[in-house]
Amino acid sequence: RMDVFSLDPDRIGGVCISAGSGIISFLITWYLIPELSHLFLAANMAGKDLNKRSNDYRVPEGVGVIAGAVYLVCLFCLIPVYALHSKDDTQLTMKTLSLYLSALLSICCMILLGFSDDVLNLKWRHKLLLPTIASLPILMVYYVTYGNTYIVLPFPMTQLFNVNSFDLGIFYYVYMGMLAVFCTNAINILAGVNGVECGQSIVIALSVLINSLLNINTDAWADHMFVLYLICPFIGVSCAVLYYNWYPSQVFVGDTFCYFAGMTFAVLGILGHFSKTMMLFFIPQIFNFILSVPQLFHFIPCPRHRLPRLHPTEDKLVMSTVKFKKSDLGLIGRICLFVLPLLGLSRVTIDDETVTMTNLTILNVLLRVVGSTHERRLTVYLLTVQVSEMSQF
């Protein structure tokens, strides 16, 4: 439990500066989005909101780049402030700045990738490769500053192997690289409904914030102060984007925001030394990814858009579907076609050789549980699931 009155002035000052940076980044982003939205329309970076009865108007797309730019500028301005916390120790100052600047470099790379994806519509193989490359700065800085590749084993395994920890060696870096790839894409594939991308990111970010505040008075306070400096401005820009992305959406965040958010979480998990805790905050996203695997790897046909569709006569969303020939499926696809309906994760109807199957997303699973519902309410349901999962930890 954090005792505020036992904190030294430097830590209190760091918390206040972090909170202030979050408020300032919110106000700047909130002001800039409506001011710059016309530039996206002029550049033909716009799309139609598919889940609206009247979707003949264009919505600016890729506006997440504004949030990313404000975030980076805010962190640039915090560099001297962050360095002052260790001004009396030259080696410590170099170490903290290397962590801070490598985090900025990796996040900046992912913002560039996301904006490139919004403009050029990159292929999936690029989306998997580039986050791996973007994670190299933080992995190398982790190697030269900490280099710890041990993991603490859970209680049953300590009794079985009579050891408390295990050295993964190079596989620990493979794991952290895969963490960066997963985080950046996990938010991207759980999207398509107004407010979902920003909403889930804010809930995860608030969980990270609370975790760090609760540990700010422990021996690992420096790591959690580092997290606070990065997470507060992120919450600020995300809340501003959510204001305009909430139903009915005035802007679309695009892949830029998804990759920006995912890499921010990956950076914090790796350099803040709580990557396993970070994965606990991603349980709904992990579930959505595992559920989506048959379509992502094309064991079952995957349409371009898997988002829920609007009911033609009601202003409600229903489960989206994909149609295909049963004969087109391989062995794994046929197994999925049999198992998933038994688990209640999909609805399948077969007419001769034509199969109609609901798309494999957590949004469709929620719609199967609650029935057809309004788009705003579906977002609230998903965020409620996310908050409920966080409260367990």
Key structural traits:
15 helices; 393 residues; mainly alpha; 3-stranded antiparallel β-sheet; two-stranded antiparallel ribbon
What's the structural blueprint in terms of helices and strands?
Blueprint (H helix, E strand, L loop, with lengths): L8 H34 L3 E2 L11 E2 L3 H21 L5 H31 L3 H11 L1 H10 L4 E3 L2 H7 L3 E3 L2 H20 L6 H19 L6 H25 L8 H18 L3 H7 L1 H14 L12 E2 L6 E2 L2 E5 L5 H12 L5 E4 L2 E5 L3 H9 L4 H17 L2
Helix pairs in contact: 1-2, 1-9, 2-3, 2-9, 2-10, 3-4, 3-5, 3-10, 4-7, 7-10, 8-9, 8-10, 8-15, 9-10, 10-11
What does this structure look like?
The chain is mainly alpha-helical and 393 residues long. 65% of the residues lie in helices and 7% in strands. Strands 7-9-8 form a three-stranded antiparallel β-sheet, with no helix packed on it. The longest helix has 34 residues, at 9-42. The chain is globular, with a radius of gyration of 22 Å. The protein starts with 8 loop residues before the first helix and ends with a helix.
Rough outline: globular
**Share of residues in strands:** 5-15%
Widest sheet, order of strands? 7-9-8
Give the ordered list of helices and strands. HEEHHHHEHEHHHHHHEEEHEEHH
User: Mean pLDDT, as a whole number?
Assistant: 88
Question: How helix-rich are the residues, as a percent range?
Answer: 55-70%
* Number of E strands: 9
| Uncertain stretches | none
Structural class per helix/strand content?
A: mainly alpha
Number of helices: 15
The rounded Rg comes to 22 Å
Described by strand count, sense and barrel closure, the largest sheet is:
3 strands, antiparallel
| Distance linking N and C termini | 14 Å
